Amino acid sequence: MSRQVVSALIVVDIQNGFISNVDELPVPGGHEVIPITNRLLERFAVRVASQDWHPPDHGSFASNNPGRKPFETGELGGVPQIFWPDHCVQNTHGAEFHPDFNQHLIQAIFRKGIDPLVDSYSTFTDNTGKNPTGLKGYLENLGVRELYLVGLALDYCVKFSALDARRLLPEVSVSIILDATRPVDVATGEEAKRELLAAGVRLVTSDELLLG
Fold first, then answer.
1. pLDDT of residue 2
2. 112 is catalytic
């Protein structure tokens, strides 16, 4: 008798700072991913979420780099960096999960972006690839063979999480549920899709899972 395949859902950064706090880093249409994500959660045996969890002095914030404006580019931690508006600062409203998100269904939370000297888009490791969050081992210990990602934003944290999953868990099938994610920018969102497909990441819709 064949053993049932263990599937996991990773919910990336469904936080106030990316949705409802207009003075932080709201993703256009970000709130629209929440009801879809909530419907999906009950379909998965393994359900984890990530949180951006920045200290107030984080080096990725334009405000901590004199002369820099939000969305300018430079370097942080030896790798290319976009300098962002302050967002998802530890122990603030912006860092909390959005209240409409059913976080009580989440079994584990992985926080990232804690080191002020390097940013962390991926839920698996920081942008240098040197400081893992522990998510890889968590999924391996549970025998996960299928991985699905939703959340914010498609062109940054969701994309880099999926690419790291392909790199770190080569035997695991990796998919992004497109209607349960949104990009910061439409153009970079389309570019992200091409990059993800080239890396072997599947792009699916929630209907394929909920109605299949």
1. 45
2. yes
User: What is the arithmetic mean of pLDDT over 105-130?
Assistant: 97
Tokens of 109: 């939370």
User: Which listed residue (88, 112, 115, 119) is catalytic?
Assistant: 112
Is 88 assigned a catalytic role? no
Give the CB-side neighbour count of residue 130, counting CA atoms within 13 A. 8
Question: What global pTM score does this model have?
Answer: 0.96
Q: Where are the domains of the chain?
A: 6-53+90-210
What is the structure's pLDDT at 3? 61
Beta strand pairing status for 73-76 and 79-82? antiparallel
Topology given in CATH for the domain delimited by 6-53+90-210: Rossmann fold (3.40.50)
Adjacency order of strands within the sheet including 6-12: 108-112, 46-52, 6-12, 144-152, 173-182, 202-204
Cα gap 190→143, rounded to integer Å: 32
